[in-house]
Amino acid sequence: MPKMKKALKEDEASSERNNERVIIEGAWQMWHRNGTRCPKGTVPIRRSTEHDVLRAKSLFDFGKKQHRRIPLHRRADAPDVVSGNGHEHAIAYTGSSQEVYGARATINVWDPSIQVVNEFSLSQIWVLSGSFDGSDLNSIEAGWQVSPELYGDSRPRLFTYWTSDSYQATGCYNLLCAGFIQTNSRIAIGAAISPISTYAGNQFDITILIWKDPKLGNWWMGFGENLLVGYWPAELFTHLADHATMVEWGGEVVNSRANGEHTSTQMGSGHFAEDGFGKASYFRNLEIVDSDNSLSSVRDISILAENTNCYNIKNSYNNEWGTHFYYGGPGRNPQCP
């Protein structure tokens, strides 16, 4: 696994620091509560039911993200994250000129409300390579997601995703197609995360690592401090078979504009970034893996949100949380009709 390059540099004390913070790391999974464990040599797999498939638009669409990418008026090097079917984002991202071999972050876990069944809200890391305006974008993604259409409930669930052709035909969530190979018997991809954060109460978060094995070239997913969950084989990809060129961290929702209005589907905690700790959702300790297999704190990031009246993002840095940001929002409100 990648090694820490160096300790974070001492920095001025941040006004965001608060001794009353209650952060409890290691949000886990609900299926562990009854003592269930997998026998040696097996891995846990969430069952796909008939109802799961029937909720999808078609068999082809089952387990896939639906994206049609369109231009966005933004600075020239910003990622093209907008799609014609209403995906909205609040993200931080790296520049597109460097070689990246992985990324890590600690992600605050909430249970945002979803307005209609075919919408979702997620918080994730994207590891990307290829062209945003073509059909060859490679993406590896992991984080937590609330998706009634995919899972049949409104619980936040650990998920993975991949595509090698801009979400057109390849790739899927979790283990719903050939691709991601799970090796860990303790972590269930697609399982509900518990406990979760509460407004002005205890905060729970999970740490996700996506990292390219320098020897075999496979992309691994890590969970928590040192658990490897499984890997995406290098042969799944074209551009990512070598390295990534961009990393994104943040939230995404689907806005289907039911009844002609912006969705009330929440992102993160459902509160705007300026509400801060315990109220807004956060990503902290953003890191990337460089060419010598070392993790280092990311200092140079940009942020993007398509409609800050609906969802927004504010980034900062201190020695405790490194590069971090608050993000999210309620969706429809008087300023977001």
Describe the structure.
The model is unreliable at 7-20 and 68-78 (pLDDT under 50). By secondary structure, this protein is mainly β. It has helices spanning 50-55, 148-151, and strands spanning 3-4, 23-25, 28-29, 87-93, 102-108, 121-129, 138-146, 157-163, 181-182, 193-194, 203-212, 219-223, 227-232, 246-254, 281-289, 294-297, 302-305, 312-318, 322-328. The strands form three sheets. Strands 1, 2, 5, 9, 11, 12, 13, 15, 16, 18 and 19 form an eleven-stranded mixed beta sheet that branches. A six-stranded antiparallel beta sheet has the order 8-7-6-14-4-17, with no helix packed on it. A two-stranded antiparallel ribbon has the order 3-10.
Care to give the gist of this entry?
The protein is mainly β. It has helices at 50-55, 148-151, and strands at residues 3-4, 23-25, 28-29, 87-93, 102-108, 121-129, 138-146, 157-163, 181-182, 193-194, 203-212, 219-223, 227-232, 246-254, 281-289, 294-297, 302-305, 312-318, 322-328.
Features:
11-stranded mixed beta sheet; 33% strand; mainly beta; 3% helix; 19 strands; 6-stranded antiparallel beta sheet
Q: What share of residues is helical?
A: under 10%
Strand content: 25-35%
Please trace the helix and strand order, writing H or E for each element: EEEHEEEEHEEEEEEEEEEEE
Q: Give the uncertain stretches in residue-range form.
A: 7-20, 68-78
Query: What is the total tally of β strands?
Result: 19
SS class: mainly beta
Q: How many distinct helices?
A: 2
The whole-number mean of residue pLDDT values reads 85
